[in-house]
Amino acid sequence: MQVLFADSHIACVDKPSGLRSVPGKGDAGFDCVVSRLIDLYGWAREAHRLDMDTSGVMVAALCPEAHRDLCRQFRDRSVEKRYEAIVFAHPADDHGEIDLPMRADIFHRPRQVIDYGQGKAAVTQWQVLESLADGTTRLALTPLTGRSHQLRLHLASVGHPILGDDLYAPADVLAMASRLLLHATRLAIDHPQSGKRLEFASPCPF
Hints:
The chain is α+β, with helices and mostly antiparallel strands. The chain folds into 2 domains: 2-77, Pseudouridine synthase; 82-182, Pseudouridine synthase (2-Layer Sandwich), CATH 3.30.2350.10. The chain is built from 4 helices and 12 strands. It has helices spanning 33-41, 64-76, 150-157, 171-174; strands at 2-6, 10-15, 45-46, 55-61, 80-88, 95-99, 102-104, 112-114, 123-131, 136-143, 182-190, 197-201. A hairpin with a 7-residue loop joins strand 7 (102-104) and strand 8. The longest helix has 13 residues, at 64-76.
């Protein structure tokens, strides 16, 4: 885990794939972004999460006041987020928007499902960055909402599952990569104390 920025209020890190954002169950699940930040700075609390298998930029609060403000920014959707992914097949268009409501699959957690009746609004914008020779596509993704597994489920639902996705991709697409090919490349927030707009970036590693 690389610390990209830290002061007395916030820390922004580049999270590797395979590291939890927050503690899981049991001693084996204790190691995570938040526990490592507590070791470094004495106090830390997540304002958002990345899936364990997703890599990239993640911000956390280092004091309660900053935590309240960051949570407000995520709740108000003033935070800007951008991801890159490599997906199966080539989309018919070079950009688009996926608007599919989601909810937790209570019988198969942690999976999520599309549900037009009880799901919460979920919107993802996407743009083709590169059509690859092996029949896959590199996409830039901008989630306008922040639902759990939103990018993974949305892309799988429109026929373009992310390579290496062990929850939503069919077996042949899962086998095309040794990890989930989803990376948070950019995050922009307002500093909780100064209000200055801050932008953090991490180059896509795949």
